[in-house]
Amino acid sequence: MSSALPPFPKPEESISEPQLLEVRSFGDEPCLRADAARNRAKLLEAAARLIAEHGVAGVTMEAVATAAEVGKGTVFRRFGDRTGLLMALLDHSAKTLQADFMGGPPPLGPGAPPVERLRAFGVAVLYRSAEQLDLQLAAQPDPARRFSHTALRALHTHVTMLLRQILPDADCELLSQPLMAYLDPALINHLTRQCGMPMERLEAGWIDLVARLTATPPPC
Amino acid sequence: MSSALPPFPKPEESISEPQLLEVRSFGDEPCLRADAARNRAKLLEAAARLIAEHGVAGVTMEAVATAAEVGKGTVFRRFGDRTGLLMALLDHSAKTLQADFMGGPPPLGPGAPPVERLRAFGVAVLYRSAEQLDLQLAAQPDPARRFSHTALRALHTHVTMLLRQILPDADCELLSQPLMAYLDPALINHLTRQCGMPMERLEAGWIDLVARLTATPPPC
DNA sequence: TTACGATCCGGACCGAGGTCCGTTTAAAGT
DNA sequence: ACTTTAAACGGACCTCGGTCCGGATCGTAA
Fold this sequence. Notes:
2 copies of one chain form a homodimer.
Chain A: H1 34-54, H2 61-67, H3 72-79, H4 82-103, H5 114-131, H6 133-139, H7 150-166, H8 172-182, H9 185-194, H10 199-213
The first copy, chain A, binds a DNA duplex through helix 1, helix 2 and helix 3.
């Protein structure tokens, strides 16, 4: 009902290069103004430093701004909100993973049979999330947007695609949801830290899950 | 490292009766002091009224306190935090559902074969969540506690138990996670409101998911 | 009835996320 | 070089969740 034209036009969906300030002129992205790009880099670097020193909890928007010698408004203009900043920090790793399963070597990338790719995908995501668990957890948006976020959508799309190759007649759009859910950082956190399960068990669980879901003729 | 003895002893795990102030003396729960019980009822009633009038977003801790003619501290003492208050609002419905599948009539309750119970369970949860979607969404705790909450644990335990009856040799503890995840209010919200899927499709998806996961011999 | 201790109450207080808007500045046009 | 304009900047400001603690209240035992 009330949609005033935003004072902060668009906080950038999610751009890569967490460390360098190199102006990415190729491609199609808006290409920030020189000062903006510089500040962006300073902010990401400051945020990373704060995490290293005080953990994710120490990453306060104001603290980041101060550490980067920049105004608070600048942080919000650039990243939209705290989630956006945290996601940007994860962006490099996300892009790498994405490149790996889009065009990388076989177990993950194209060339292997779909089921095998799916298995490899899950294991890769599992361990990647386990590393950056705290950050992944903190970067999780509120429930209403958990599934809207670009990075997640990309993974979801990929799983759906693989599934469609394996089960052409199933509702893969839906079937991919439980698979993705199994890889949710919040779940990994719960199972490993709160229930004390070892990663090997989670990994085996994934393999089992894939096997059960992709068994071609549903029941008998 | 820093665990001072809490000024608010324990905000009550989750007690029922959202509307009446009747003192529940039987059972084992602490049984609040008269004034405390009265305020608790006033608070829940005020919160419900605020939701009806301004939606979940209108449920500010201060607004609730004011509407209930009570101090802000009282709200926090009683419910711990906003999530606790919202959960308390959902508690009645949660207890009802739980009673239904613990001791109710067959499709849901004991008596029917486990697979059938599982199917019925999913459908029931699906539609129940769809009704109170906004509230369910808002009541969702932060990612680190999503899986620790009592109400969810109860559902999860039940699913695990049913699964164990169906697949005695599988890692049901893990296998139940994707099932529960499919019923996550945040997912239902995404699929119905953001993707525009009808509930019938979600329901069919659940039936299909159960069928695939419980097909006894994994692959061939 | 009185006295006492445990519990509860209230609202000032704090920190953090997010917004606003007057000012500054990069960069494209003349 | 000079003007212009869209974009960026900064930090005061607002809201809201959550904490604290002095003082009021309940329930009980004498």
